[in-house]
Design a protein that fits this description.
It is a single chain. The chain has two helices and four strands. It is an alpha+beta fold. The chain has one domain (about 10-80): Alpha-Beta Plaits (2-Layer Sandwich), CATH 3.30.70. The longest helix is centred in the C-terminal third of the chain and has 10 residues, at about 55-65.
């Protein structure tokens, strides 16, 4: 049976690539904050924060502009949270 729950876009950071320059934090201040070293942290404390609909445009911009290609958007439902899908 197919889920009827609306998919949520979540932001994934590949920590093996990120170098903490902080462009994503500037574009997504409601989703991310900087840690003391400049690395992005989710404001909601999750590993892959949900991106509000009104921030999706900036999230896509952050994915496209990340100098380390460390960001991706995952389309997930609560049932698939924690599983990775292709960006
Ligand atoms: S823009 Fe990319 S490299 Fe810079 S802090 Fe964000 S994820 Fe890391």
């Amino acid at each position: 049976m197919k889920s009827t729950k609306k998919p949520t876009q979540r932001l994934h950071v590949d920590w093996t690539r990120c170098d903490g320059r902080g462009l994503c934090v500037e574009l997504l201040p409601d989703v991310l904050r900087r840690d003391p070293w400049g690395y992005p942290l989710a404001r909601d404390g999750s590993r892959e924060p949900a991106v509000p609909v009104q921030a999706l445009r900036n999230a896509r911009a952050a994915v496209g502009r990340c100098p380390r290609l460390a960001l991706s958007l995952l389309a997930t439902t609560p049932e698939t949270r924690g599983r990775h899908s292709a960006p």
